[in-house]
Amino acid sequence: MLRLPRFRLHRPSTLDEALACLAEAGSGGRLIAGGTDLLPNMKHELATPATLVALSAVRELSGIRRDPDGGLVIGAMTTIAAVAASEDVRAGAPALAQAASLVASPQIRRMGTIGGNVLLDTRCQWYNQTYFWRSAIGFCLKKDGAECHVVAGGSRCVAAASSDTAPALMTLRASLDVAGRHGRRQVPIDRFWTSDGVRNHRLGDDEILVSIIIPKTPAGHRGAYGKLRDRGAIDYPLLGVAARLDLDGDGMVQQADLVLTALAAIPRRVTSADALLRGTRPGTPGFAGQMDEVADRAFRQCHPLENIAGDADWRREMIRVYVRRTLEAAASGGGPVHHL
Question: Is the pTM of this model over 0.70?
Fold first, then answer.
């Protein structure tokens, strides 16, 4: 049986109290939201914080509301299930609602939070194991070792980003509201990432993710999310595809975006997707032809590694399939895409 190590727990009731607790804990402190990722990692001795600062009682971190400009503000402690079920999210950010609906299992979605999913630790089949298992192979770059078992001789961790909601938020041009001891800052989510698999985001150790801000989407906005996984529930993505299409009054594509995840340490935007699809009309041969070209571009740009379960060559072949299906779902107002 894997047991949790001993730790001290703080349960602040305000954001200021939470920041003070985090500052007091110093480098030995960690935030805990739903705990669906952190607690298993602690049992595997991937994280061994001396102090946990629980955010469940900080009410200002929860809830979904409209901002004065018509966009959405989602508190970081809002459960994934609440995001998936929100009519406001489904109407204004359908790719996000779909991505949230495919996270793990119903039980985990009710416990896990949207902030926790955005900040989800990168994953690797050589890292997400018990301490005993990892010690037998000599550990790895991400934790306790000096060798990458994915890339021979590699000097940089290539553990994969596995958040389902992050790529959808990137297509929505979301920003993150972050609080720290020096005040608040807003960070466009595209600028939040770093390509190091050890720690792939720029949230400071003394900072707390407060909320996610999504700008208002136009009336013709369409979005969808596709997730490749071994099973119909629980699994992390072997590939995730978030698609955005904004249509004008005549049904022509005004703007397009496509972001893939589970291939590298950060989600990957497919370049030229907007230029190729802009001006086409879904349901026509022109749109279908350009959609195939976007799928080919994604295939050429993305190269999965043997860092997570699933044959890397097969996962790469599925890029074309899932890009096409997710764009088709977005165009038709359908989705999510989560089967072969």
Answer: yes
Residue 109: CB atoms within 10 A of its CB come to 23
Beta bridge partners of 261: 240
Angle, CA of 121, 126 and 131, to the nearest 5°: 85
Element (H, E) at 75: strand 72-75
- Run of H or E including 242: strand 239-247
Contact (Cβ atoms closer than 8 angstroms) between residue 243 and residue 258: yes
Apex CA 90: angle with CA 89 and CA 94, to 5°? 100
Write out pLDDT tens, residues 158-170.
999 999 999 999 9
Q: Is residue 73 part of a domain?
A: yes
Helix intervals (H) in the chain: 15-25, 38-43, 80-85, 87-92, 94-101, 106-111, 114-118, 131-137, 165-171, 273-277, 285-301, 312-332
Please check whether residue 146 lies inside any domain of the structure. no
User: Rounded CA gap, 339 and 69, in Å?
Assistant: 37
DSSP string, 247-310: E-TTS-EEEEEEEEESSSSS-EE-TTHHHHHTT--TTSHHHHHHHHHHHHHHHHH----TTSSS
Domain boundary among 59, 74, 106: 59
| DSSP code of residue 5 | P
